[in-house]
Design brief:
Elements: H1 2-36, E1 40-41, E2 52-59, E3 67-68, E4 72-79, E5 82-86, E6 89-93, E7 98-101, E8 107-111, E9 124-131, H2 147-155, E10 160-162, H3 164-177, H4 183-198, E11 202-204, H5 220-232, H6 239-245, H7 250-261, H8 265-283, H9 288-294, H10 300-311, H11 315-321
Parallel strand pairs: 1-3
Antiparallel strand pairs: 2-9, 4-7, 4-9, 5-6, 5-8, 7-10, 10-11
Helix pairs in contact: 2-4, 3-4, 6-7
Length: 330
């Protein structure tokens, strides 16, 4: 009896090892194809003289590859499962998921393998809402009543996934508004965006530092700070220097920054550094110790500590998760 139990445990362990290798291998092969290929620029199917467009897609599987576009997109999965790629975020998606993708953020929804079987009767269905940022006049978007939506659009540059009751309310509004025409298309879009903007049930997808595609016309002050950090994150940055950029004392700047990002200045800067380090780790052209210095950390142990804090794993574990075998030791 004891021998049978030991055999069963051994078989179970073997199953999980093979299963994990299969999943990680599949994720890596997909991710590798994305990192090798540059995202495609997509011309969206906007009707003539329209800046807001609902598009319903119903196919055996989604066909749009890794791509980006200047329009803002809200994607609601009606049917289908698979893997979602948004910037450097890779995760499974399922029916009912709803995400908001900001301008020029690379993304792809790739169905599971079963959807590509010609004998399968599975369907991939989604409702996409595209709208151009130009619908918001520069004076209109700066109105106090638009503060929430302005902030939402800024957050969408990293991609947003909505959860909980908010997700149900958002998808219901999308279903009701899909056939809107005329001014109702505008008023219902504002209602939808306000609902998304005031929700606390959301997750940010792409990391802060993975992409530099930020073009904030709305928050000039914060954008000045952001562009400075993106340009100089690999150097030694003093708090006083950044605060002076926007005419604030260090204390006032820390308070402003925490209110704006829900993070301390150091936490935010480290996220930028860690996000960029992910790129370098996946490219696998440098040792981990070299990458540490390249992204602005003065010592390796601090880099590893901050990497674990942000990602929940060490740099070498991150590489292993995506099937990257380091060419050189740390």
């Amino acid at each position: 009896m004891l021998v049978l139990i030991e055999f069963f445990i051994l078989a179970l362990r073997l199953f999980f090892v093979l299963y994990n290798r299969l999943i990680i291998g599949r994720f890596y092969s997909i991710f590798q194809s994305l990192t090798i290929m540059k995202p495609l620029y997509q011309d969206l199917p906007f009707p003539i003289d329209s800046h807001i467009h609902y598009y319903v897609e119903d196919l055996p599987h989604f066909i749009v590859p890794w791509h980006y576009h200047p329009a803002i997109e809200i994607m609601y999965i009606v049917r289908g499962t698979g893997t979602r790629f948004v910037g450097d975020c890779i995760e499974q998606y399922e029916e009912g998921d709803v995400c908001m993708i900001g301008p020029n953020l690379p993304h792809e929804w790739r169905n599971d393998d079963a959807y590509f079987d010609k004998k399968s009767d599975l369907r991939a269905t989604c409702i996409c809402l595209f709208f151009k940022h130009e619908i918001f006049d520069s004076n209109f978007i700066r109105l106090p009543e638009m503060n929430n939506i302005r902030d939402l659009i800024e957050r969408s540059r990293r991609g947003l996934k909505f959860t909980g009751n908010s997700k149900l309310e958002i998808t219901q509004l999308i279903r009701e508004a899909v056939n809107d025409v005329g001014v109702r298309k505008i008023t219902n879009l504002l209602t939808l965006l306000e609902l998304m903007a005031t929700s606390t049930e959301y997750e940010l997808l792409a990391s802060v530092g993975f992409t530099n595609s930020v073009n904030s016309e709305d928050f000039e002050r914060f954008n000045k700070v952001y562009k400075f950090l993106i340009k100089n994150f690999a150097t030694s940055i003093r708090l006083e220097e950044v605060a002076a950029l926007v005419g604030l004392t260090p204390t006032a700047f820390c308070r402003y920054f925490k209110e704006r990002t829900k993070k301390t200045f150091v936490e935010y800067l480290n996220e930028i550094r860690i996000g960029y380090s992910k790129k370098l780790l996946l490219e696998n052209k440098m040792k981990i110790s070299t990458i540490s210095g390249e992204v602005g950390f003065t010592n390796l142990s601090n880099f590893i500590s901050q990497f674990k804090k942000v990602t929940g794993m060490s740099p070498s574990q991150f590489q292993k998760q995506f099937g990257v075998k380091a060419k050189q030791a740390i």
